[in-house]
Design a protein that fits this description.
By secondary structure, this protein is of the alpha+beta class. It contains 13 helices and 25 strands. The chain has a 23-stranded mixed sheet. Strand 18 and strand 19 (468-478) form a beta hairpin. The longest helix is centred in the first third of the chain and has 25 residues, at 2-26.
């Protein structure tokens, strides 16, 4: 009896495989390609084509289907090229599980050289959206709706599909986003993916390697995936990812993401980005859920504007569907340290960002590229900066706002002597304006000599608005002088600053010894001071003293004395001048007359005060 059953089963199998063999040999799948592509075109709302098809039988794979030259047209509003093109699809199906378990058992699927082109217009509409609309369930009236009750024939129960092995080789996905300025072009190339035990109802394992702006595969991903056909969603769980920054091609990166050109990246990137996606859900409406914990390890970023590259870059990354948070980043820049935090909100749309930065002992000569600059600066910079803005295009600098406080110590400007440059521009001081003719004392020439300016320390408080650094308060202390500054420094390196220069007593004494008229500029501490305007573009700055202010002070000081001598010889004129100055008859002169303090802070003697008061009043409106 058992023997007969076995014989019947064997005959049954022979009949099945024999029938399949005959069917495969005589069935020409190419004859049915027009009908197949027509139905596919109707289902997707796009023109679909298949160049060639083949049907074979394999003992190992079962029934084998080969499709060559598969294409799906793009939305005509976006491109005349194909939205999807696949060079070759190879699929093997085992027939026995269908007869025994009502399952479709796919032994393997191999897709060779597929290419997908995604385009997003400036209005935010993408070229894949019409396919999603076409595949939505239909209502009883025939209109599509994601929330409507499906039509009756949409409730057909399909057999369970199991795919033992799903492989993709040499795939390419391009993304052109025209909503950014400049347009963003991302190309994920050389994609090799493998899915084990693929199913439409159960979880499956995913492994993917790809090249992103790189000379070779620099991205590795592996984890668990799941597809929900009813909700039209793909879910990933416990996905590990790794990217080798050393393989990035800087030229490709900046060409694809034009907004990065503002940073001036140079070849020589290194380090890695590592992370785990605990959960990610993508649906017809885009990214729905994302929870990623990652980190940047041992990063190295060379920039054209920096002498030394950014090194030892580390950061903690927390990414959700709406926010990117960078915590506790730190890096070395020369012998200095930079640390801070950053967050980007709504990074897929508005891209609102906030950054806080702390700088510690950055040596300017190790940071700023100065080879081509005629004036060089060195010193130790420390401080804090808080910035906020929106977007990552080159125009973002116009929208950045923030505050910054920093201090500079042990600094030196070479090839410029600021004090000498200022004093040479005071024409009313002949001894100073002819420094080149060596009319000053030997000690003063020594103090003003040299071609550099040393700054012991500087402290600056500023705001950042509309591509400008607005300096609210700045104090600069040099070897022989100090500045109090306020004004504006543009991101384009343009400078417009109002300064109050104070020359310390030692140098002030030497200046007065060589140019006596300068004593009119002394303050209560016997230090020369006067306003200065600093303008130009870094490093070609002009330091202009307020000559009008200085001239008035000198005229009042010297002219007042000469006028007093004339008045002393003419009592009647002096009496008239007293009335003009005081508005009433004078009550006393000589020892009982009140003294007056002039604009420099010095007290006038009674003999000189009337002349000076007259000239000061005369020049006040000028």
């Amino acid at each position: 009896m058992i023997r007969k059953v076995i014989i019947v089963l064997i005959l049954f199998l022979v009949l099945i495989f024999g029938g399949l063999f005959v069917f495969v040999r005589i069935f020409d799948l190419n004859k049915y390609l027009p009908q197949i592509t027509q139905q596919l075109s109707l289902a997707l709302g796009r023109q679909a084509t298949v160049e060639k098809a083949g049907l074979n039988l394999s003992i190992k794979q079962g029934v084998v289907v080969d499709l060559m030259g598969i294409s799906l047209a793009d939305d005509a509003r976006f491109s005349k090229e194909s939205f999807v093109h696949i060079q070759h699809i190879h699929c093997g199906v085992s027939p026995l599980p269908f007869f025994i378990k009502q399952q479709i058992a796919v032994t393997s699927i191999k897709i060779q050289s597929p290419e997908i082109r995604i385009i997003r217009h400036a209005d935010g509409v993408s070229n894949y959206e019409s396919i999603i609309e076409a595949t939505k369930p239909k209502t009883a009236s025939g209109s599509s709706s994601s929330s409507a009750t499906p039509a009756k024939d949409a409730n057909v129960s399909f057999p369970k599909v199991l795919v033992s092995s799903f492989e993709i080789h040499k795939a390419r996905v391009t993304y052109n986003d025209q909503s950014t300025q400049p347009a963003t072009n991302i190309s994920l190339e050389d994609i090799d993916a493998k899915v084990v035990n693929f199913s439409l109802t159960d979880s499956f394992q995913i492994q993917l390697d790809a090249a992103l702006f790189a000379r070779g595969q620099n991205i590795h991903i592996d984890g668990t995936g799941r597809i929900d056909p009813k909700l039209q969603q793909v879910r990933l769980d416990d996905v590990r990812l790794f990217s080798n920054l050393a393989l990035l091609d800087v030229e490709r990166l900046q060409k694809g993401v034009g907004s990065l050109t503002v940073f001036g990246l140079k070849p020589g990137l290194s380090g890695s980005v590592q992370g785990v996606i605990s959960q990610m859900v993508v649906g017809s409406k885009g990214l729905l859920v994302l929870s990623l914990d990652g980190k940047i390890v041992a990063g190295r970023i060379p920039l054209k504007m920096l002498v030394n590259p950014i090194e030892q870059l580390t950061a903690k990354l927390d990414v959700t569907e709406s926010k990117i948070k960078i915590s506790n980043f730190s890096l070395r820049l020369g012998s200095g340290q930079v640390s801070g935090n950053a967050v980007v909100k709504d990074y897929l749309s508005t891209q609102d960002f906030e950054v806080s930065i702390s700088m510690d002992r950055l040596l300017l000569e190790e940071v700023i590229e100065q080879d081509k600059s005629p004036i060089k600066i060195k010193g130790s910079l420390s401080g804090t900066m808080n910035l906020s803005g929106q977007g990552f295009s080159p125009e973002v600098l116009n929208k950045v706002v923030g505050q910054a406080e920093f201090g500079l110590t042990d600094a030196e400007l070479t090839n410029v002597n600021i004090i000498k440059s200022i004093l040479e521009k005071i024409p009313v001081l002949s001894a100073v304006s002819e420094l080149a003719q060596s009319q000053l004392s030997e000690e003063l020439q020594k103090q003003l000599g040299g071609s550099s300016t040393k700054i012991a320390q500087a402290k600056v408080k500023s705001r950042i608005e509309r591509s400008n650094i607005l300096i609210d308060d700045a104090n600069v202390i040099g070897e022989k002088f100090s500045f109090v500054l306020s004004g504006n420094v543009g991101f384009d390196q343009s400078v417009s600053l109002d300064a109050e220069l104070k020359i310390f007593k030692e140098m002030s004494d030497s200046l007065i010894a060589s140019a006596h008229d300068m004593d009119a500029l002394l303050d209560e501490n016997s230090e020369i001071h006067f306003p200065v305007k600093i303008t130009g573009k870094i490093p070609d700055l002009k330091y202009m003293p307020d000559v009008a202010y200085i001239s008035k002070i000198l005229i009042v000081n010297k002219g007042g004395g000469e006028l007093q001598k004339v008045l002393d010889k003419n009592p009647q004129a002096k009496k008239i001048l007293d009335i003009f100055i005081g508005g009433k008859e004078p009550t006393g002169e000589g020892e009982n007359a009140a003294t007056n303090t002039d604009q420099s802070g010095q007290e006038d003697s009674p003999e000189e005060s009337k002349g000076k008061q007259f000239l000061r009043g005369l020049l006040k409106g000028l």
